[in-house]
Design a protein that fits this description.
about 40% helix; alpha/beta; eight-stranded mixed β-sheet; 11 helices; TIM Barrel; about 280 residues
Length: about 280
């Protein structure tokens, strides 16, 4: 690891309380399931990114630590338990993401809505950011979630088109762009957000082209972070992108008109999401 990728693991503050609460309520977090490097910091500050619809994904993206297998049935009590966690932790900006559920006709859209409604009922002052799958290209499912009026609609483009086959088998670059464009078409005032991992072999020019495509799809918020290999079974890191490159890309993103940009090695989609949404 280069020096800029080394930092202490934060485990003071509310770390144990958050972990115990998630265990008690039988909730999953992307922090744990995806082996996020920011887990210690976020748990210690009393927050987490919720992962709904189970801990198993129907796809096998080669960058992701979430297990790929046949998922179990949806848990009808999950929305209420998640809302309880938001209330107990006094979360002001809740980020709710999901495993991909290609086994469900609507990709889990109705369950997403149930979670949003439960959080709103329990904690009306909490802002809600959703980070969705592509719903297999089912735009009706996109409409269903967007109609619940989350405060931010996030869908990650993840990488450049040339690398999709090796990085995101089962996904399509144009499909992901359509998800973001559809939200903007139906709800012009709803902030949309997307993110990319760097260090998979992409070029600077390819990243800038993706940023332009995102702006054309109406996307306003952007995150750029370093890909880290979760295990030997996953794609190797092609490059540890230096901080100066992240800074340069942030300037280009701002010039393209993104309203909020977070670009640094440890940035992830939900990292400091509340602060980003408030810009």
């Amino acid at each position: 690891m280069p020096e800029w990728m080394k930092r202490p693991i934060a485990r003071e503050g509310s770390y144990d309380n958050v972990k115990q609460l998630m265990d008690r309520l039988e909730l999953h977090t992307v922090c744990q399931s995806a082996k996020c490097p920011n887990q210690g910091e976020c748990f210690a500050s009393g927050t987490a990114t919720f992962l709904i619809m189970g801990d198993a994904c129907t796809r096998g993206c080669r960058f992701c630590a979430v297990e790929t297998r046949v998922p179990g049935p949806l848990d009808p009590d999950e929305p209420a338990r998640l809302a309880e966690a938001v209330l107990v932790l006094r979360i002001k900006h809740a980020v709710i993401t999901t495993v991909t559920r290609d086994d469900l006709p609507d990709g889990g859209a109705a369950h997403f809505v149930a979670v949003i409604e439960a959080v709103r009922d329990a904690s009306p002052g909490t802002r809600i950011e959703v980070l969705t799958s592509d719903f297999g290209g089912n735009l009706e499912s996109v409409d269903t979630v967007a109609a619940a009026l989350p405060d931010v609609f996030n869908h990650n483009i993840e990488t450049v088109p040339r690398l999709y086959e090796s990085v995101r088998p089962g996904a399509e670059y144009a499909r992901s762009l359509r998800v973001l464009a559809r939200v903007k078409e139906q709800h012009p005032g709803m902030p949309t957000k997307s993110g990319l991992m760097l260090g998979l072999g992409e070029t600077h020019e390819e990243v800038v082209t993706v940023m332009r495509d995102l702006r054309e799809a109406g996307c306003e918020m952007l995150t750029l972070g370093q890909y880290l290999r979760p295990s030997s079974k996953h794609l190797p890191v092609a490059e540890f992108v230096p901080p100066a490159e992240f800074d340069a890309l942030a300037l280009e993103a701002e010039a393209l008109g993104f309203s909020a940009v977070a670009s640094a090695p440890f940035v992830r989609s939900s990292y400091h999401a509340g602060e980003m949404a408030a810009r």
